[in-house]
Every structure is written in structure tokens, then in C-alpha cells.
Amino acid sequence: MISSSEYGSHSWELLVTVDHQHEEVQKEFLLRVTGDLHIGGVMLKLVEQIKIPQDWSDYALWWEQKKCWLLKTHWTLDKCGVQADAKLFFTTQHKMLRLRLPNMKTVRLKVSFSSMVFKAVTDICKILNIRRSEELSLLKQSEGTLKKKKKKDKNSKEPVTEDILNLCNSPVSSGLSGSPGLYSKTMTPVYDPISGTPASSTITWFSDSPLTEQNCSILAFSHPNCSPETLAEMYQPRTLADKAKLNAGKQPLWLQPNVKSAAPDCESIILMVNNDQHCSFLLQYDAVRINQIYEQARWAILLEEIDCTEEEMLIFAALQAQYHVSKLSLSSEAQDFTCESEVDEVEAALSNLEVTLECGNTSNILEDITDIPKLADNLRLVRPRKLSLKAIKPYWFVFKDTSVSYFKNKESAQGEPIEKLNLKGCEVVPDVNVAAKKFGIKLLIPVADGMNEVYLRCDNENQYARWMAACVLASKGKTMADSSYHPEVHKILSFLKMKNWTMSPQAVSDPESIDMKPECFVSLRYTKKYKSKQLAARILEAHQNVSQMTLVEAKLRFIQAWQSLPEFGLSYYIVRFKGSKKDDVLGVSYNRLIRIDIATGDPITTWRFSNMKQWNVNWEIRQVAIEFDQNVSIAFTCLSADCKIIHEYIGGYIFLSTRSKDQNETLDEDLFHKLTGGQE
């Protein structure tokens, strides 16, 4: 029975469960509180009632139903909305987390579970010696996305998860702040003579990282390739719908209010480079970051999460083989290195891979600004026709600004063109077979009723590189006067050079003389298509063009080739557009949205973020609505995942596009949450 005085009072009982290690002490405590009691007062009452002498400074109240921490200790229970039916847990904010990296290496470290995921990723990157933390996010993978079939679940094993790297003694993990000036421009990297990676300089920058006390190469080196049997057990998407289901199983946790909401049971979470397009800033200083991006690219190729041709697959295999062979040879010759051989390999690799902004003499800068370059040449135009052969005709083409015009011949170029194609917002797909001397450019140009498909055929590699680079820039709304034109031409030529190989007498005649398993370097489809010796011979053919590369250059070329693939950076989701009676696939990239026919895989329409005026989400009906220039509006509901994932991707990509290349740039976390938040 309750006395009349108690019945008339405003107090009530609140049940709190305490997370402690003392078995002899009870874990559930019943507190009598009032609505005007602040959170700090609740914790003080609780500690007095527990009567265990220990440091409670890292403890806080976790509200299970709301999935949130009650960290504002001056707020009252009424202001927080806590009532008698609330389930509160008094637990530590810093907990152990198992994290699987893209190279399938699992690390164990202490993370603040009360921090926003955006802030927690920054702290994790400090521990792992990875800069540009905004490029990464925690990603929760649902059960079954890594397994091929349910009947194989009992026997299947995930690669390299039993060897866990323990980083639990990190000062950052313990809640201490990292050392200032991590991104100083004045620091000069020192490169390891064996690996060619700048591990030493990275350790110097992150001197408070636990990796300084261990071998940094654990995360900076790639592990041996998994066996074909292990690869066969892993899930490999076959269709666009499969890729959409795979993306639905990968839940980005950018906007989780705290890490505990993302990982309530301290389960494994994958740390992945979610935003592929922006993973190229200052790679020359980041040994760990280079390796993690390389590993993510390698697994995407091996599991066929991104499509590539057989020729391209052999290039990727050759680059992996070069890394494998170089690593073995460098390890065997490590004792013969002298101080003179400590060459800055990364800088050398980048100087070969990239063309600086100062492509010409300084006297030509004004001319480049005032005069927009143009291309004019003889090309062949191909227009696909239904129920008939393709029509291939030669024309005189002129490329200027972001448009391509073609004429009957060079003499008629002063008059009106036969047709003028505006390439802004179009899709540009390479149609190349170097062995067959085929250099084509596939253009999917947006029109009122879908996409107009046009092919341009070039005569040689140099012509193809110039026109392809111009088309790629024009699709982004840029002209050939942009500083990125010449680097794009150079990148295309270097990729074509890797594809151009012929078996020479100096090539290894016996594939078995090299200690490698060719099945480990290609996807399962090609291990079924070719025998082991045939596959090894073809990989060694392609290997000739990359055999002189260093370890770091092989990785950087692999990343560069991965970024050159048409499907690079695309995440797929099954959606239903407003007014449509069938499902479509929506491809979300760093700069555009693509509507794709789910049956044929052909692009229907492309919308660029640069033309976007605004976007919003109706959280009641789970519909995303976007407005573009020229009174273009679209709306769709997401069927394969939550609509907030697409909303977060759009906001996240726009946030990343606002970054500068300043190493000392401070991230605007408020802007990030403003662009990606707002749901419900």
C-alpha cells in the first residue's frame, strides 16, 4: 500500500541497470526521482546507492528505447522526456570495437560509443595513421552478404579474421586528444627502402598512435591473396539487381547519433572508403591509406562488384602479380640496400602518373585562359539501329566548349553542321579493345524521351586519348581549357599502354617458374574459362608492361585503373519513380544520379548534382524529391534500402565536393550534419 503523502507527491520510481564487473553487487537499482531532477543528480544518487569505490567518470546513462545517451547532465528528466517506463543503463562510454578493414585485417580498439559516428571515424583514423577521415565511414554489413549460398554457411570462412591486431592502448582510444599539427605541410616524408612506402613519416605525424610501437607495415602491406576456394564461397553479384541487394546489405552509418546505435553488441563493423571519387588527395604521404584503397579496389575487382572487360581484368591481375613479385624480390634483397638507395619512390611514381598543372610554359597561361582549345579531326560516327546493321560513316568532327559538331567534310566546316551534340550531362563509356585496334567512345546523351546512343570511332591511341578526355570533361560541364584536361589525356594514354602487350622472347616461358597462383589474381569467371597454365601465360603477357614498376607504383596504377572503369563510384538501389508502373535501378555517384533499366542495364536518364537546385525527403511516405535546372523534377521511393541512405549519399557527396586540398583544412562538421541530417 502507498501512503497518502507518497501518492500525492510528484516522485516516481526509475529502474537503472548498472554495467559493472562486481558479481557480488546487484546490477539493477530502483531510484525514487522527480521530473525536475537533473541527469547529473540521477547519476549521483545511483553512485551513492551502488557503494563501489571506483572511477565512474567514463560512465553515462544510455536510454535503450530511444537509442541515445543522456549526456547533457544539466537537463532535467522532464526535459529529456524520461518517464517511469524508461529503460536506462549506466555504462561506460568507451568500449572495445572489432573493426574489419578493406584488406580483411581485423583490428581491436577502444572507441567512444557516445560520439557521433562522424567524430568516432576521425578518432579511429588517428589511431590507424589514416588522414582525410571524411572519406571513410563505418559500414555495417548484414548477414549473408558475404556468403554465396545458405547451404555453404557452415563450411564457409571469412578470409583473415582470426589474426586480430590489438590497438586498445591507444591514447586517442582512451579519450585523450590527438597531437596538434598532424597535417603540417613542412614535414618531409622518409621512405622505407624495402617497401617503398612512407611508413616512417606517417609514424612521425601520428606519434601518439599505438602503431608507432608495432610494425606499421601490418596495415601498410597487402596480405597474400586468398585461395580460389575461399573466393568461390564469397558472394559475387551477377546482375544489377544483385548489386542493388548487395548495397542494401551494406548500411552506411554516417549519421548514426552515436556508435552504440550502430554497434550495440560491439560486433564487427567494416571501415571502408565509401566515397571512391575523392580518395586521391595527397596519397603520396599515406602508406596505410594507399594500401586500404588498393585493397578495396582489389576486392571489388575479384568479387566482380564492378564490371570490367577481360583485357582490363588481365591488367589488374598483372599489377597484382607485379606487387607480389616485387615484394618477394625486395624482401630477399633487403640486406643489400644502402643509404643511397633510399629513393623517394612515391614521388617518382606520382611524377610519372600525373601531369602537373603547369603543363606548358608560363608565357602560354594567358593564351590558355582567353582561347578555349578545340579539336578537329576525321572520325567515324556509329548509330545503332534496331533490326539492322550499324550505320558507320566518316565525318569531319569539331569539338569546342562542351559540344561536338560534325560535317560532311573538312571543307564544309565553315557552314552549318549536320548535327551538334551537347555533351553536358551525358554518359561517356570507353569502347576499347587495344589488341583489335578498336578505339571507340560510347556517348549516351540525355534527350526528352531517354538517352540518345552515339559511338565515335578513332583511328589510333593518341586521337582516342584526346577526344575521350574532352568528352569526359564536357560531360562534367568543363572545357579543354580546364587544367585537368592534359592530366586526363596522360592518364588515358598510360592505361592504354598497359593494355598494349605482345609476347616477347624475353617473356617467361614457364609460368610455373614464378611462385604465384594465377587463380588468385582474377575473378571466379576467368578461372572457369581458362586452365591454370593458360591463365598464367596471359597474365605474364600483360605483366611485361608493368614489370619495371615499384611496389608503390603498382598500387597507384591499380587504383588509377580502377577509377577509370565506367562503373567506378556507383552504388545501386532499386527504386520506383513517381508515375512509373515498374521498378528501376538508381545509380548514385559522386557527381550524378543515373536511372537505369533494371532488365537491360541501359542508362535511361542522367541528372548532375551541379544542376541540382534542391532536394528533400517526405519522411511519412519515404519519398525523395529533387529539383534541377530547366524545371526538371523527379521523385522516387527506394525499395531495396531506406530512403535516408540515398539522402545521406547526396548530402555527403556535396559536402566532399566543398573540400579544398589544404592539408591544414579543418572539417566543417556542422555543414556535414546540415547537408546529411534532418531526417524525422
TrEMBL record:
Looking up Gene3D superfamilies in the UniProt record yields: 1.20.80.10, Phosphatidylinositol 3-kinase Catalytic Subunit, Chain A, domain 1, Pleckstrin-homology domain (PH domain)/Phosphotyrosine-binding domain (PTB)
Q: List the SMART domains hit by this protein, alphabetically.
A: B41, PH
Q: Which GO molecular function annotation, any one, does this entry have?
A: integrin binding
Query: Could you tell me which residue ranges the PH domain spans?
Result: 380-476
Q: Where are the transmembrane segments?
A: none
Q: Which Pfam families match?
A: FERM_M (PF00373), Kindlin_2_N (PF18124)
- PROSITE patterns tied to this protein: PH_DOMAIN
- Family affiliation: Belongs to the kindlin family.
> Which InterPro entries does the record cross-reference, listed alphabetically?
Band_41_domain (IPR019749), FERM/acyl-CoA-bd_prot_sf (IPR014352), FERM_2 (IPR035963), FERM_central (IPR019748), Kindlin/fermitin (IPR037843), Kindlin_2_N (IPR040790), PH-like_dom_sf (IPR011993), PH_domain (IPR001849)
The places in or outside the cell where this protein is found are: Cell junction; Cell projection
GO annotation (BP), single = integrin-mediated signaling pathway
Q: Which GO terms describe its cellular component?
A: cell projection; focal adhesion
User: Which superkingdom, per the lineage?
Assistant: Eukaryota
**UniProt keyword list:** Cell adhesion, Cell junction, Cell projection
Query: What name goes with this protein?
Result: FERM1 protein
